[in-house]
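Private note to self, pasted from the team thread so I don't lose it. Backbone tokens:
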């Protein structure tokens, strides 16, 4: 094995900055697109495919994570990071040129394939150049990236679509990615593991087939009819084949040993739920503000930013709370906040102000920040050293998968309700999003559409409440004990 000696790496601060730029680029992607999506739908149409824009990106990103992890050991961190980031940037450029929702979905899939390399490899690169005792301090800088991007993403997305063409939200990442790659090319010394490892392409393919068939069944349920049964059967068979393959594989996507711990299972299940709840809010709260309330993209971005503010604040608080109470108490408190926040969304009406939506999003963000941090620390502290890295990767994978599934389920609920409530209207949400089409509606038709779309979105928010309740049940699975102070 040849590896970089952390004590011999010069210019580590520049490598850290390059990694932070890459993390920032990946972190703002979902929120900046979520804020702009109502405007994109107004121009491209195809609201029934709305959920696919998020789900396909998260799916291809999640499935590619373990592949990039293996490739980084075989080919080296720098080379694989460059490959993934280049795919991401090319996909970003293509997204800006999309002329229909179908093309946008295709390009988002391509973008997601590249995004799967960015987060895990930046974390690995930082671990390569900093000693274990230094990494705790570095985490503060990395956390600041998430906090800043969580606020900048929604607000910048709103500002861009209000003053420029929406394509710019995809293109702003290009200079950031290029600068990050140039800095790593200049200062990061390559390292790789020369021990023989194999790519589990069969497992990755079966995983993608399983989840894609399930997402298709959920997102297109109203148009597929009885064909949905075939897709669900395909998902079930592919899932069974995946389980058989993983049990026999010498290089499984995630070692089966990590699923033998109740705490690790609970942590992954918790992050699956958190990912689903997060995308439900990120994708559909801006739709409420712009479609039902007739608000601006800036107002939608401001409300979404409140969730992003609550998350890092609660995440910081949860570390201290765990030391005084326990993993279980902190996770349950966060789950109760998540339930309260999603329940507040059910009180929204067509006359609700931006403060109502923003406060609801803030409470949801505090619940997510508290639960996600607690689940992660509980998993990391319970995992054996030799599987600590893959356990952390499994948490990341679970959250991405949960985001994809949550968007699919809630998108299916919304599409079904719109089909039942407004059968005579084609793409009613697009009509409300488009300023020209909205003004062309008479007061009676506008009032009816707003009422029915609001009722449909309330069903989406009701599903998010149910998901939040699941997090409370999962929190009971983690131990009622305090973490060691040095690990918190």
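Design output:
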């Amino acid at each position: 094995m040849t590896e970089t000696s952390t004590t011999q790496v010069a210019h580590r601060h520049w490598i850290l900055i390059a990694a932070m730029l890459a993390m920032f680029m990946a972190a703002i992607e979902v929120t900046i697109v979520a804020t702009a999506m109502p405007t994109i739908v107004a121009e491209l149409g195809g609201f029934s495919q709305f959920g696919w824009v998020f789900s396909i990106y998260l799916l291809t990103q999640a499935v590619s994570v373990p592949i990039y992890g293996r490739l980084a050991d075989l080919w080296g961190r720098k080379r694989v990071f460059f490959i993934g980031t280049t795919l991401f940037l090319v996909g970003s450029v293509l997204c800006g040129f999309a002329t229909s929702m179908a093309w946008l979905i295709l390009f988002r899939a391509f973008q997601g394939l590249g995004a799967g390399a960015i987060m895990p490899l930046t974390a690995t690169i930082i671990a390569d150049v900093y000693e274990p005792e230094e990494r705790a301090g570095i985490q503060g800088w990395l956390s600041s990236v998430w906090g800043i991007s969580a606020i900048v993403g929604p607000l910048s997305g709103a500002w861009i679509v209000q003053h420029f063409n929406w394509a710019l939200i995809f293109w702003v990442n290009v200079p950031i990615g290029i600068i990050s790659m140039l800095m790593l090319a200049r200062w990061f010394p390559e390292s790789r593991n020369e021990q023989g490892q194999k790519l589990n392409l069969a497992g990755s393919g079966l995983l993608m087939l399983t989840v894609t068939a399930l997402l298709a069944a959920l997102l297109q349920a109203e148009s597929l009819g009885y064909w949905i049964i075939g897709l669900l059967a395909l998902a079930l068979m592919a899932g069974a084949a995946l389980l058989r393959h993983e049990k026999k594989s010498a290089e499984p996507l995630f070692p089966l040993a990590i699923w033998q711990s109740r705490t690790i299972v609970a942590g992954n299940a918790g992050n699956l739920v958190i990912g689903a709840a997060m995308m439900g809010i990120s994708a559909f709260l801006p739709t409420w503000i712009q479609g039902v309330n007739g608000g601006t993209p800036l107002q939608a971005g401001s409300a979404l930013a409140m969730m992003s503010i609550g998350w890092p604040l609660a995440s910081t608080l949860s570390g201290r709370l765990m030391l005084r109470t326990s993993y279980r108490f902190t996770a349950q408190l966060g789950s109760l906040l998540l339930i309260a926040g999603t329940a507040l969304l059910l009180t929204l009406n067509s006359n609700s102000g931006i403060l109502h939506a923003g406060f609801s999003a803030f409470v949801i963000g505090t619940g997510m920040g508290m639960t996600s941090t607690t689940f992660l620390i509980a998993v990391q502290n319970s995992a054996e050293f030799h599987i600590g890295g893959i356990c952390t990767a499994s948490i990341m994978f679970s959250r991405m998968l949960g985001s994809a599934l949550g968007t699919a389920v809630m998108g299916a609920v919304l599409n079904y309700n719109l089909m039942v409530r407004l059968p005579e209207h084609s793409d009613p949400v697009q009509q409300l999003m488009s300023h020209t089409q909205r003004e062309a509606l008479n007061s009676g038709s506008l009032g009816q559409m707003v009422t029915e779309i609001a009722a449909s979105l309330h069903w989406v928010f009701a599903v998010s409440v149910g998901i939040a309740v699941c997090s409370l049940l999962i929190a009971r699975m983690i131990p009622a004990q305090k973490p060691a102070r040095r690990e918190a």
